[in-house]
Amino acid sequence: GRSVPVVAGGANKAYARLNRILSDNNIRRELSLRRRYEKPKYKRQRLRQESHARRFKEEVKQKVNLIMKMKNWG
């Protein structure tokens, strides 16, 4: 499981750190997806959409980096 040490009354900081860990690892998203059964057809559709979104995001990031390089060229 996930655990975060609480140091000398820093409960708020520990809670914030735990929330950050959970959001970074998509734990909350997985829990919400597992609350209900997902038919295989819809699971495939969702995974395909997520894959396309990741690929699109990566391509946009590459384009932005290229544009920033071109700006620095002068």
Name the helix and strand elements from N-terminus to C-terminus, one letter apiece: HHH
How many helices? The count is: 3
What does the average pLDDT come to? 93
Major sheet summary line = none
User: What structural class should be given to the helix and strand makeup?
Assistant: mainly alpha
Number of strands: 0
Q: Give the % helix.
A: over 70%
- Poorly predicted residue ranges: none
| Shape by Cα distribution | flat
Cα separation of the termini = 51 Å
Residue share in β-strands: under 5%
* Cα-based radius of gyration, to the nearest Å: 19 Å
Description:
- This protein is mainly alpha-helical.
- It is flat and about 55 Å long.
List keywords for this structure.
single chain, 74 residues, mainly alpha, 76% helix
Report a brief summary of the structure:
The protein is built from three helices and no strands.
Which helices and strands, and how do they pair?
Elements: H1 11-24, H2 27-34, H3 40-73
